[in-house]
Write a structure and sequence with these properties.
By secondary structure, the protein is an alpha+beta fold. The protein has 3 domains: 100 residues, Rossmann fold (3-Layer(aba) Sandwich); 70 residues, ATP-grasp fold, A domain (Dna Ligase, domain 1), CATH 3.30.1490.20; 241 residues, D-amino Acid Aminotransferase, Chain A, domain 1, CATH 3.30.470.20. Helix content is 35%, strand content 26%. The longest helix has 19 residues. The chain is globular and about 60 Å long. The chain starts with a strand and ends with a helix. The mean pLDDT is 97. The structure holds ligand MV4.
């Protein structure tokens, strides 16, 4: 096992990783930007090293700075968390060349799955269902029109370097397709330095269902069940739950087997997530694979009892998975609310500032993953996630009741948060029935 790990991240996830390290008896090194000195991850870590100015590109994305910190502190491994450098194949390569273990899959897998179009074709080869669409990236507008003719409108244009919704467009006819393809390509080029785009048939009112994967370095790969992430706004997930309301035991076996099959095809190691779209008839389609720890990993931890971050660390240290697929059980129902420093009554605009009162909920079945405290000043430089409120209960109904109770207890004054938005969701009849799809948040907000 490692004796010292550097956490190349900030916020709640840096705190989460430090907690796992402490319980494993591993010393921790935090890195932080000029404006993050007061952050909880800096206080919790055994050592902390300032790696640069506030701007992410000068600090949390600054590879030379982070590698220097790792060398100075003499760590054996780096945990990248999510976001920032977590899916940067180049960073994983640099770590390797410096004999520092990158806690995640190999650079080759990160690169392959980062190319969303190639990832689709790779999974199609082993028999995973995918949406009808272009076989790879679109070369010109003639090809785009030809593909659309074959699969029928509406179609979705997706940036191959994107994922998670960036650079996506829906087109309903040839004229729009040609113009939106150019917009999407330009947007992708600006955001990722890569304009590649592909086309899929647009699935109406789907659900987003994803499977948590764990793979060790001995060829063992298992899944930890699924999460429903259908409650999203502008491709930002707001609420996740496990199990997924629309997934029956039978469907879980089918989708889970496919998820593991796909991961085995690429010799996947460490934690990963296979994302699917699910339609009303229980048909599912592979969308993309995320090669990182996900924000929403705690709901899977609560229903399976498995600490995913500890598993990641153990796998990277060369340990064998202690679980077989048969030993994995989902018990109860978990839901997570992302508490963002945002004004949900004004387009979810960021709401940085000082927290003047802070009291987090507690009692049975409550978990709060956060990095803020009373008088903490939320910085405008990073994402607005300040806390994840997670509940576990016997079943979905009781999980909703518990979440409502916890949301009522949560006191965060001084800034705007998404707590009120969540209260609205949990009192919504369609959400309570579990019959919602991708347009849920927009519909809910337009009702207001
Ligand atoms: C789709 C889709 C419909 N058809 N792909 C991909 C990234 C994710 N953030 C949203 N994505 C979608 N991809 C095809 N071929 C619909 C969505 C989608 C969505 C999916 C699940 C939950 C909420 C959503 C909101 C908008 C779009």
């Amino acid at each position: 096992m490692f004796s010292k790990i550097l956490i190349a991240n900030r916020g709640e996830i840096a705190v989460r990783i430090i907690r796992a390290c402490k319980e494993l008896g591993i010393k921790t090194v935090a890195v932080y930007s000029d404006v993050d000195g007061d952050s909880l991850h800096v206080q919790y870590a055994d050592e902390a090293i300032c790696i640069g100015p506030a701007s992410s590109k000068d600090s949390y994305l600054n590879i030379p700075s982070i590698i220097s910190a790792a060398e100075i502190a003499d760590v054996e491994a780096i945990h990248p968390g999510y976001g920032f450098l977590a899916e940067n194949a180049h960073f994983a390569e640099i770590c390797k060349s410096c004999q520092i273990k990158f806690i995640g899959p190999s650079p080759e897998i990160i690169r392959l799955m980062g190319n969303k179009s190639e990832a689709l074709q790779t999974m199609k080869k082993v028999g995973l269902p995918i949406m009808p669409g272009s076989k790879g990236i679109i070369k010109n507008k003639e090809e785009a029109v030809e593909v659309a003719k074959k699969i029928g409108y509406p179609v979705m244009i997706k940036a191959s370097a994107g994922g998670g919704g960036k650079g996506m467009r829906i087109a309903h006819n040839d004229g729009k397709l040609v113009s939106l393809l150019m917009t999407a390509q330009a947007e992708a080029n600006a955001a990722f330095g890569n304009s590649d785009a592909y086309i899929e048939k647009y699935l109406q009112e789907p659900k987003h269902v994803e499977f948590q994967i764990l793979g060790d370095n001995f060829g063992n790969i298992i899944h930890l069940g699924e999460r429903d992430c259908t409650v999203q706004r502008r491709h930002q997930k707001l609420i996740e739950e496990s199990p997924a309301p629309a997934v029956t035991d039978e469907l879980r076996v089918k989708m889970g087997n496919m998820a593991v099959k796909g991961a085995k095809q690429v010799n996947y190691t460490n934690a990963g997530t296979m994302e699917f779209l699910l339609d009303k008839n229980g048909k599912f389609y592979f969308m993309e694979m995320n090669t990182r720890l996900q924000v929403e990993h705690p709901i899977t931890e609560l229903v399976t009892g498995i600490d995913i971050v500890k598993e990641q660390i153990k796998i990277s240290a060369g340990e064998k998975l202690q679980y077989t697929q048969d030993s994995i059980q989902q018990r109860g129902w978990a839901i997570e609310c992302r508490i963002n420093a945002e004004d949900s009554e004004n387009k979810f605009l960021p709401s940085p500032g000082v927290i003047t009162d802070y009291h987090s909920p507690g009692g049975p079945g409550i978990r709060v993953d956060s990095y803020v405290y009373n008088s903490y000043s939320i910085q405008p430089f990073y994402d607005s996630l300040i806390s994840k409120l997670i509940v576990l209960a016997e079943d979905r109904k009781q999980a909703i009741e518990r979440m409502q109770r916890a949301l009522d207890e949560y006191i965060i004054n001084g800034i705007k948060t998404t707590i009120d938005f969540h209260k609205l969701v949990f009192s919504d009849p369609a959400f309570q029935k579990g019959v919602i799809s991708t347009d849920f948040v927009e519909n809910l907000l337009s009702k207001e």
